[in-house]
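User: Fold this; tokens only.

Assistant: Input:
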Amino acid sequence: MNWDAISAISQLIGSVAVVLSVLYLALQVHRSTRVAKLATQDAAAAALREVTKPFMENADLERIWRIGLEDLSALSIEERTRFFHAAYQFLKAFETIHFHYVYGLMDRQLWEGWHGLLRHYVAAPGMAHYWKLRPEVFSDRFRNFVNSLEPPAEQRTVGTLFGEKRK
């Protein structure tokens, strides 16, 4: 065997090693992307849980949220302020969820559930009032998305879920 043949075999082995390395790297990137998507989806759920958890733990906050969604006039000024803070946090959590979906970090089926939930809440009179007053605190992309939402045929939130009639 001459040196030219040895050199050719070495180059072939080197080329195969590079191809295998690139394939391995592609596999690792794919796995990493999957892990990032799962982490993002979990973070989205955690963000909304953080916003709604106080409503489960504090009856007064739950009452303000439930009534404020349907009839802001039934709340005092202080309670409306608390409702508006909660509405801001709620919508910011959804803005983040929407951002993750737009950038491909959210599974479509999971997104459809979030999308459906948001449609019900932005259709609630109290949330709709807040949205009209404060859209500028959200990104253009999210504002356009929310403004394009079709209201559900029957709006259901914690304020209407149990069949209580609006005042």
